[in-house]
Amino acid sequence: MSLVEIRGLSKKFGNNVVLDGVDLDIEKGEVVAVIGPSGTGKSTLLRCLNLLERPEAGTVKFGDKTYSLTSRNKKENLALRQHTEMVFQQFNLFKNRDALSNVMEGLTVVKKLSKEEAREKALEELRKVGMEDRLYHYPQHLSGGQQQRVAIARALALEPELLLMDEPTSALDPELVNEVLLTIRKVASEGNTILLVTHEMSFVKQVANRIIFLENGKVVADGTPKQIFENPESERLQIFLQNINMLESSDNYVI
Amino acid sequence: MAKLFDGALVIKQLPKLLKYLPTTLYLTLFAMIIGLVVGLLIAVIRIAKVPVLSQLSVAFVSVIRGTPIIVQLYITYFGIPIALKYINYYHGTSYDVNNIPGIVFAMLALGLNQAAFDSETFRSAILSVDKGQIEAARSMGMSGGQVLRRVILPQAATVALLPFGNSVINLLKGTSLAFTCSVVEITAAAKIMAGKSYRYFEAYCSIAIIYWVITFILERVLAGLERKISIPAQPKEVES
Questions:
Q1: Is B226 in CB contact (< 8 Å) with chain A?
Q2: What confidence tens digit (pLDDT) does each residue in B65-107 have?
Q3: Which of A48, A75, A137, A161 to mutate to test the interface with B (most CBs of B within 10 A)?
Q4: What is the mean pLDDT of chain A?
Q5: Which of B139, B161, B230 to mutate to test the interface with A (most CBs of A within 10 A)?
Q6: What is the pLDDT of residue A246?
Q7: CB B139 to CB A52 under 8 A?
């Protein structure tokens, strides 16, 4: 049985179909990268999974509990959201709280841990992302890369079954991308299950063990990095990879 | 020539006027609280677009902002007794308007006036909170109320503090209109005293000093609050 089973996920913005009946199974410990042209619903896929967007149809199953993504039941929605945590492109740290309180916030408010327990847990997570020397820094004191590492710690502290990462390095200066990528690689190697949207193709090749190519709201290709990058079957995927200069064989470059 | 301006009297009559200062402060405090609570309520109702209540709020804010406060005080002072008489007549009750002290009318009118103006301050402050942080809180699994209490209101408070301080200072001086509800606060007391001595100019000078000193104290309190809730310019280092 898969850790997560997504069935029939459909989302429209007006008349624009962004996700068209997406089915997706994710196994425990998998690092799944979602790639595809812009506007194909990569971010929307993630955002629907923790209900930041309301899809028109779809269910998601965690373990033996199935949730309807269209349910308006508040209790059910809160329960679903606690299975996943999101890392955002813009970090979205709470600006009025320092790094430590940012990580503690979910632990005390949502998980109802005591202050001491939450502090312990938060310190541990901040240590893992190498931010233990900046506990009392507010977001405005931190660089983008540091903020994103705190945001990753904040998400992991809540022990999500599935970690959603929505272009975690897209808003960063090129110089800062690396520290975040290293953090993500560490997080992946620790056995966390991750669904990741990114444009860092070389990074995807290193860290993902499965890649999904999304186009026009459908999963067009699904395979290991080797299958996707070295032996793309779908014509559309070939064009996409050519456009981003990632096809391994140089014969395919068209100038 | 008789003394045109009696400077000593300005100081000498201060203690007598200060006896009425508590009335001014009570009026300010309670009107401020009404303004804070009702204003916040209106702001949240309008942002959440609650049907019916939202439209009523818009109408309320428009009417209050569109009429002079002195008119509102008179309307409250004369309107509530008439309303009570109607209620008594149709429901057979026997509420006596004379049991309600004038200060209650003044607090109510000033408070609702504050609410109308404060609601706009609060609304803009709430809307200024970064949507991304609200999404982050929601995706963590916080309920709507928790997001409001833990994320939106603390950050909106920082934005609203300065204009809210303005509004409280205005209110403090606005309480000088409470004489319309037959409340004797410092301005009314000064007028009464001057009516006996004909030293009007001195009386107004005395209360001007009192108002300014109180405002000065208020400004210091607000500045302290601002320092307290602002994010420190320099981060605190971790002690190792």
A1: no
A2: 999 999 999 999 999 889 888 888 898 888 888 888 889 999 9
A3: A137
A4: 90
A5: B139
A6: 62
A7: yes
Which of A159, A183, A213 finishes a domain?
Answer: A159
Rounded Cα–Cα distance for residues A128 and A149 (Å): 9
- Each residue of B57-73: pLDDT tens digit? 999 999 999 999 999 99
Residue A161 DSSP class: S
pTM: 0.84
ipTM of the prediction: 0.89
From CA B25, how far away is CA B220, in angstroms rounded?
17
| Size of the A and B interface in Cβ pairs below 8 Å | 79
Q: Give the residue from chain A lying closest to B133, CA to CA.
A: A92
Please state, in angstroms and as integers, the Cα–Cα distance from residue A253 to each residue in A178, A228, A236, A249, B224, following that order. 27, 17, 15, 8, 65
What domain range includes position A110? 91-159
Residue of B97, B76, B108 whose CA lies nearest to B180 = B76
CB < 8 Å to B238, chain A: 132-136
Average pLDDT rounded to a whole number, residues B43-65: 96
Report the phi/psi class of residue B182: left, alpha or beta, with left for phi > 0 and alpha for psi in -120 to 50: left
Helix (H) or strand (E) holding B70: helix B69-91
The count of domains in chain A is: 2
Q: Nearest 10 degrees: CA dihedral of A98, A99, A101, A106?
A: 140
Distance CA B164, CA B171 (A): 10
CA atoms within 13 A on the CB side of A163: 27
Note whether B140 contacts A106, CB cutoff 8 Å. Answer: yes
B235: nearest CB among A105, A110, A141: A141
Rounded CA gap, B128 and B122, in Å? 10
List CB contacts of A10: < 8 A, sequence separation 6 or more.
A17, A19, A20, A21, A22, A55, A56, A57, A58, A217
Query: A244 and A229, same structural domain?
Result: yes
A195–chain B nearest CA distance, Å: 15
Nearest CA-CA distance, residue B239 and chain A, Å: 9
Where does B96-152 have alpha helices with state H?
Answer: 102-127, 131-140, 144-147
Domain boundary residue, one of A159, A182, A198 = A159
Q: At the fourth CATH level, which superfamily is domain B23-178? A: MetI-like (1.10.3720.10)
